[in-house]
Specification:
single chain, 426 residues, alpha/beta, Rossmann fold, five-stranded parallel sheet, 22% strand
């Protein structure tokens, strides 16, 4: 009988890319991929530790993997395996704790275990770019890792400690990876990494890399994942005139107060951020901006928070990922005075979520009567197709053909609430 393996991924798109690659390794070696709640021989938990919530979700997934699963291997990897390695190893119910650099070697480790061999995690191959092209995936889109690590050392952030120094993947490897996933039938690729705007390989910067990707042959489109607002210029703005590049950026803001941005040790100020927004909206009026907002940073006053809310409203983000500041051990912010009470963080987080919901509806309302090219990702029980348009707006419509993973132009008729979200109906 085939051995069975289950995966659980927490956190960022980079983790998603790496899980898809490891999943492909297991699939090509004859394993059956099953749901995380099903019985399996191996459970792989790819963790996140960016916030307390990430820690909590990761621990919940680990507990789910080990509970009542005697005889199964439990492999924990990802950023928590870096930041809390001793805690995880001392639990006694986890088979292996694997760091990010060794994540590519999970399959050889598991195979050695089942073969009765001794293979220490410390002796595994370490390569942050050695991942297999993801032939199997939990997603319709194909994540493409172009970069890893970060050198910014924002005062609140643990990522440089758990991902290491910034390093860029060779351009030819990226292009080959993209060609392969296009040949496999993927229609949308998402460029991901820790700090992708800092991409630099042998003098080729992020803008130059995208230009090379857009020149590849094939019926596909390109989406840029979360990115820092730095290093942009006219050549970068010009790229969005290309039909293959989606007019959407998740442009990290964190705070609308310059004073707080300085305390965070961010590399930009508010006006520079606004300049990027204004330039792109001048060229592409429906350009979609989403962002991250961190509330409750040490020393954040009501005035600082009001400035943030004002900026959010003025820019009109279509989505705001809001998270409360969490103390990360070893960061400079851990030692800062004037830590904000948890109750205040909760109130501010709720206020941003309510504002963001209002702005999301306003942004999506603009698309009524307009057309989006939708990548069909799923079919609902009542036969409707769901997917995202090029502006990263969710669309539901009656398809003209069966199946998924195809582009269809859809004229949007009205906006409907679906649970906590707003779906554009075609």
């Amino acid at each position: 009988m085939k051995r069975r393996v289950a995966f659980k991924t927490l956190g960022c798109r980079l983790n998603q890319f790496e899980t898809d690659s490891v999943l492909t390794d297991f699939y090509k070696s004859g394993y059956e991929i099953v749901g995380f709640s099903e019985p399996a021989d191996v459970y792989v938990v790819n963790t996140c530790t960016v916030t307390n919530q990430g820690d909590h979700k990761s621990k919940t997934a680990i507990n789910q993997a080990v509970h009542g699963r005697e005889g199964s291997l439990v492999v924990v990897t990802g950023c928590m395996a870096e930041s809390q390695k001793q805690y995880l190893e001392n639990r006694g119910d986890i088979s292996y704790v694997i760091d990010n650099k060794s994540k590519v070697s999970i399959l050889p480790l598991v195979e050695a275990h089942f073969n009765g061999e001794i293979l220490s995690p410390d002796n595994l191959k370490k390569d942050v770019f050695g991942f297999t092209v993801a032939e199997k995936s939990f997603h319709t889109r194909s994540m493409i890792k172009i970069q890893d690590g970060c050198d910014n050392f924002c005062t609140y952030c643990i990522v440089p400690s758990v991902r290491g120094a910034a390093v860029s993947r060779p351009v030819q490897d990226i292009l080959d990876n993209i060609r392969k996933v296009i040949d496999l039938g993927y229609k949308e690729i998402v460029l991901t990494g820790v700090n992708i705007s800092r991409y630099d390989h042998e003098g080729l910067d992020f803008t130059g890399l995208i230009e090379k990707i857009l020149n590849l042959e094939g019926n596909f489109r390109v989406r840029i994942s979360s990115i820092e607002p730095e290093g942009f210029g006219q050549p970068f703005f010009n790229l969005f005139a290309h039909e293959k590049l989606c007019p959407h950026l998740h442009l990290c803001l964190q705070s609308g107060s310059d004073r707080i941005l300085m305390q965070m040790r961010r590399t930009y100020r508010l006006q520079a951020y606004r300049d990027i927004i204004e330039e792109l909206l001048k060229r592409y009026p429906l350009f979609n901006f989403t962002t991250d907002i961190l509330v409750g940073f040490p020393g954040e006053t009501e005035d600082d928070f009001d400035q943030t809310c004002k900026v959010i409203r003025e820019i009109g983000f279509s989505h705001v990922h809001t998270f409360k500041y969490s103390i990360r051990h070893g960061t400079r912010a851990e030692r800062m005075p004037d830590q904000v009470p948890e109750k205040v963080k909760q109130q501010r987080s709720q206020a941003v979520r309510e504002l963001a919901a209002e702005l999301k509806q306003q942004y999506r309302q603009q698309f009524i009567g307009k057309q989006q090219t939708v990548l069909v990702e799923k079919i609902t029980k009542n036969g409707l197709a769901r997917g995202y348009g090029q502006h990263y707006v969710p669309v539901e419509f009656r398809p003209t053909q069966p199946g998924t993973n195809f582009f269809e132009p859809v004229t949007l008729k009205h906006l409907a609430a679906a649970s906590h979200d707003f779906i554009l109906k075609g």
